[in-house]
Specification:
Helices cover 37% and strands 22% of the residues. The chain is of the alpha/beta class. Strands 2-1-3-4 form a 4-stranded parallel sheet, sandwiched between helices. α1 links the parallel β1 (5-9) and β2 (28-32). The model has no long low-confidence stretch (mean pLDDT 95).
């Protein structure tokens, strides 16, 4: 049986590691350090869920979501956006 695929996008490697360790028993995990890299992985790996940080260099979470929603083949993908900012 195939595991669902989750893409984690966060510029903090510690956050990526925590999410990976928490989810990898149940899901196949892919990781990216910014939204631009995340879009490339989405197109190549077609994840079932995306967890992204809000603030990142190169391409932030909101811009990543805008780009994702502009693509008719990708706009259906669910996104959870996280932030550590108060």
């Amino acid at each position: 049986m195939r595991k669902e695929r989750v893409l984690i996008i966060d510029d903090d490697p510690d956050i990526r590691d925590v999410l990976d360790l928490s989810l990898s028993d149940y899901y196949t995990i892919f990781a990216a350090s910014n939204g631009k890299e995340g879009l490339e992985i989405v197109k190549a790996k077609n994840p079932d869920l995306i967890i992204t940080d809000y603030n990142m260099p190169v391409m932030n979470g909101p811009e990543f979501c805008k780009q994702l929603r502009r693509d008719i083949l990708l706009r259906h993908l669910p996104v959870i956006m996280l932030t550590g900012k108060k």
